[in-house]
Amino acid sequence: xxxxxxxxxxxxxxxxxxxxxxxxxxxxxxxxxxxxxxxxxxxxxxxxxxxxxxxxxxxxxxxxxxxxxxxxxxxxxxxxxxxxxxxxxxxxxxxxxxxxxxxxxxxxxxxxxxxxxxxxxxxxxxxxxxxxxxxxxxxxxxxxxxxxxxxxxxxxxxxxxxxxxxxxxxxxxxxxxxxxxxxxxxxxxxxxxxxxxxxxxxxxxxxxxxxxxxxxxxxxxxxxxxxxxxxxxxxxxxxxxxxxxxxxxxxxxxxxxxxxxxxxxxxxxxxxxxxxxxxxxxxxxxxxxxxxxxxxxxxxxxxxxxxxxxxxxxxxx
Length: 317
Description:
Blueprint: E1 7-11, H1 17-31, H2 38-55, E2 60-66, E3 71-77, H3 107-112, E4 114-121, E5 128-134, E6 144-146, E7 167-175, H4 177-200, H5 206-224, H6 228-236, E8 242-249, H7 252-269, H8 282-299
Helix pairs in contact: 1-2, 4-5, 4-6, 4-8, 5-7, 7-8
């Protein structure tokens, strides 16, 4: 699966990771022409990596997402435990990279160096990302954000109560569960990225803002849909294909068609972005288009058409 970010670095679970992350972030920011962010980014990422080494567990990585205009530094670890605050301690020039326990000055420092910050869980709750948007030289902005702003969708169970909403039957024939699992991961990651861009600057990223609203509507409909558990089980059983029968709100076909059309615009809008790789492999795009279009087609009364593409991503040596 192609990663959503073009810039990432896996770190060893040892104290030298602090210096390694700091040097790497400095180099990437220089490469994209954001030298004005280097000082705050270096201090912030040093603090986040330090906290991850002390309080979390490997594997550990640092990545840069967002856009060139609004880059975001993220430190990802394999612990779902929220980031911990610590007391302020030595200044950066007094830090020994081989003695990490002397360095943690608390997440308050990250807030001081940031235009915005936050933390959220992976969609499956298996890991977390702690992130910040570094401030430019002379920028003393609002430093807004939530340190523990975890994904609001995590932990919400799908509902079996449809209420009084009109319902619609959707049949998805020969859906490939293994391939769809990759699509689902991409969906959650893209949703997160666009939500954060929308929070950062909705006026500069109107498509991200519009897409976020469409995601919210799709999630509401998914929670009252019947049949999703069958797909989950097919993925768990590693089936090659499965026929699904969904009972969904009658509004779902319009929502799915809107998501499909917005994805086309999103891929085009961010095609040349130096930090993001929002377009997945072509087979995933094709599956996504087929899936959304089946809702639209059957919503207007057409008979279902089976998926006739590959059932997995073909890799070449």
